[in-house]
Amino acid sequence: MSAQPRILIVGNAGQVGVELQRSFAGFGEIVGVDRESVDLAQPDQVRDLVRRVEPSIILNAAAYTAVDRAESEPALATAINDDAPRILAEEALRSNALLVHYSTDYVFDGTKQNPWTEQDTPAPLNVYGASKLAGEEALLQVGGRVLIFRTSWVYGPHGSNYLLTMLRLARQRDALSIVNDQIGSPTTSIELARVTHQVVSGVIAGKFGDAKEWAGLYHMTCSGSTSWCGFAQAIFARAGKLLDGKVPVVTPITSEEYPTPAKRPRNSVLSNAKLESRFGVRLAPWETALDTVIQALG
Ligand SMILES: NC(=O)c1ccc[n+]([C@@H]2O[C@H](COP(=O)([O-])OP(=O)(O)OC[C@H]3O[C@@H](n4cnc5c(N)ncnc54)[C@H](OP(=O)(O)O)[C@@H]3O)[C@@H](O)[C@H]2O)c1
Questions:
Q1: Over the chain, what is the mean pLDDT?
Q2: Global pTM?
Q3: Consecutive H or E run containing 262
Q4: Is 128 considered catalytic here?
Q5: Does ligand 1 have an atom closer than 6 angstroms to the CB of 13?
Q6: 86, 138 in Cβ contact below 8 A?
Q7: CATH class belonging to 6-160+187-223+269-284
Q8: Are 189 and 221 in contact, with CB atoms under 8 Å apart?
Q9: How many other C-beta atoms are found inside a 10 Å radius of the C-beta of residue 72?
Q10: How far is the CA of 64 from the centre of ligand 1 (A)?
Q11: Helix, strand, or coil here: 109?
């Protein structure tokens, strides 16, 4: 591997893609591609992209992430979340490139009382989760220098996400009813990119040995957990300045009171123990990470 790796960032306009582009600046020659450059639903375009760029590192931050819409577009979700990553993995294997890919807490059914580990059996409740699980399985089947990071409740200063939606709703309404019985770990795109960079730089430096010692699936979330309602309350508690003091009244409701096309897990908290022990890295507590994003917006 050359001293200056060529890094292909697929989905560089998404929440995580933007932050990866920032984190990896200076680490190598970055080629970032968005939907304009490659349509991941077109297998030939995906293959051609990798063969043209010849990266030694591929960071795949692209995905079909519209959880509810996926229920009515399963073929498209599968093409982007399963078929496209499989081609990236095949191309990475062919050229011995490192492939980093992200997956989701929604591979689980939410019935466990404790945090989910990588050993737990996935049982997705919705099309999005099933398509992402199929993508994980494809990558593990192809093998090679592959890292899959399962994360959850991703948000940040850019893109389309829960935090920015809550701030918009707060400006429009005096009161909000928010689901209080789904528990997870809000995770910032900033923390994901920071820790991905730490892991990748260690892998490239040979710090963790051969691929057989580090390749595989890891959970990667901010620590701690809350409900969607608790997350909203934490946002409003910090965002007074951004909202000119106009903070809405929040009423907790159940999932049954807020029906959505896609069913979601009740408990999707992930254990990061494997990531921490293998790579010696740790993401910030979710409240601290939220402070950072609120400051970035302010
Ligand atoms: N968001 C979450 O809460 C969450 C939770 C758990 C795991 N994850 C995983 O984390 C990773 C990053 O998610 P994110 O939140 O950063 O997602 P995001 O903001 O929705 O970004 C995804 C990117 O993929 C692009 N994309 C979608 N379809 C495409 C296509 N056919 N061709 C080319 N590009 C396409 C999107 O482009 P357009 O904007 O043009 O559609 C977008 O730029 C994904 O693997 C996701 O599954 C996310």
A1: 96
A2: 0.96
A3: none
A4: yes
A5: yes
A6: yes
A7: alpha beta
A8: no
A9: 12
A10: 5
A11: coil
